[in-house]
Design a protein that fits this description.
The protein is mainly β and 290 residues long. It is built from three helices and 18 strands. A hairpin with a 4-residue loop joins strand 8 and strand 9. It is elongated, with a radius of gyration of 29 Å.
């Protein structure tokens, strides 16, 4: 009996020791934890900046706040932004994260579910100004990351830097972080001579595939035809004042043999290169064309 009691005591001491050891490894005291707060994403209104229309570009999202106290603890939301330069060819830009604005909780309103809700946005000009950069520093493919920080009256701050995966996941949908990628969508078609280079690696034409260029409603098809045809080059002129322009690819047989390259009318650089192109309207890289 003594042996059994001694074994129980030893086991108990081991458990206590292990428990104390595990507790020492924690960087917080679980007993001191309080309730958190988060900003649930209801919708994202815009997540791109158009390099061709910086003045008219903005990022925006609608969120609702939950602090477990009917919103009584929430005081404000800070909006920060950082920038990732994915196009170092035009010079590397690496500004530090910057504060764009602080939104007081008074700008929030109760929604039908009883939570405080607001639409939060940042225009491209105020974003660039906060970072201390200009439109010359950005190009298609660059990325802005917006970070929200929810401030409480007791001094606590909740943001993407101190929350867990359970909060950022689909149930709470509270990432506190959003991105706006830089795209290049000219407001009007770019005039000039576009050079279309078509190639068939087997040398028997495009097997029924073709590119349709439509300029102000007038459509023209371009392809490679002939039993010994390996390539063809076309100059497509887009007149000044053109109001609508589209390039559409229709696939044929043996698609793996088809290569399409398009040279831009302003830069002389490739604005499209695919083997094979995807069916439908072609997405061109026009950032160097304006």
């Amino acid at each position: 009996m003594k042996k059994i009691i001694n074994l129980i005591l030893i086991a108990g001491l081991v458990l206590v020791s292990a428990s104390c050891e595990d507790r020492d490894k924690l960087n917080f005291d679980p007993l001191e934890l309080g309730e958190g707060a988060f900003l649930r994403t209801l919708s994202v209104e815009s997540n791109t900046f158009n390099a061709a229309d910086i003045a008219g570009s903005m990022w925006g999202a609608t969120v609702e706040g939950d602090d477990g106290s009917n919103g009584d603890l929430m005081t404000s939301v800070d909006v920060f932004v950082s920038f990732r330069d994915n196009t170092p060819d035009n010079g590397e830009t690496a500004p530090a994260e910057a504060l764009i604005k602080t939104i007081p909780i008074g700008d929030f309103a109760r929604n039908d579910d009883g939570f405080l809700q607001a639409s939060i946005s940042a225009t491209a000009p105020e974003t660039l100004s906060a970072l201390g950069i200009t439109s010359d520093d950005i190009d298609g493919g660059d990325r802005f990351t917006f970070r929200l920080a929810l401030n409480l009256s007791d001094g606590r701050i909740f943001s993407s830097t101190n929350i867990g995966l359970n909060i950022t996941g689909p149930f709470f949908n509270s990432p506190f972080r959003y991105v706006a990628d830089v795209v290049c969508n000219p407001l009007n078609p770019i005039a000039g001579d576009y050079i279309f280079e078509l190639e068939d690696t087997y040398g028997d034409g495009w097997d029924g595939a073709f590119v349709t260029v439509t300029i102000d409603g007038t459509a023209t098809d371009y392809t490679i035809s002939g039993a010994q045809a390996t390539d063809a080059t076309y100059t497509v002129n887009v007149p000044v004042g053109t109001s609508s322009l589209s390039f559409v690819y229709t696939p044929g047989n043996f698609e793996g043999e088809h290569i399409l390259r398009i040279i831009g009318p302003v830069s002389g650089n490739e604005i499209f290169n695919a083997n094979p192109p995807s069916a439908g309207e072609l997405v061109l890289n026009l950032c160097n064309e304006f």
